[in-house]
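Researcher: Please predict.
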Amino acid sequence: MLQKLSELFSAQRAPAGYRPGVTLEYLRRNLGLASFTSTGPASAVFSLDASGLEVTIVERTEAQLLMHLVMTEFRIQLPASQQGSARWDLHHRGSIRRTGLACRQRAGEATLLARLEAALAGDASLHEALMALDFKHLRIELQAQQWRVRLEHMGGSEVVNRMPAFRRYIALSPAQRASLFTVLAGLQRVLSGL
């Protein structure tokens, strides 16, 4: 079976020219939070003042042929009131304009999917913030009585090209920053009630 070229060239190692922590430093300035603390060369943590939610940020690289991307992934972990194992991916509906949210189940029971979709649709402020948020990936997992959320935003990332040589950080706008914080706090609220 043929693999994608990017998977073949990456070979589970950091791309040439990758500088761990540089993108996180740009993001730290972008977020402007006093609670932002580095926990390693490519990870950090901060807490949302309003809800006290602890958010972990991890740099993730994706190698291409003559370039690589450094994305930041926001992660939260919450206790779940039930046992089980399930995984869902959320994305925007509509190819040109966003018309709604779609939740695709990757594993687990279908009854949990119906409850999750109802909870997401029932929280108006969370739904509005999710519609405004420019995210690439949003994964929600239930595992060992823990909710785990991984959100990768389009902003807060860096494009590094080798030929011609350039680096470009894609900043989080103030509106996207506010939507991100609203989504993280809203997911904490909704998932704690499931």
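Model: The chain has a mean pLDDT of 88.
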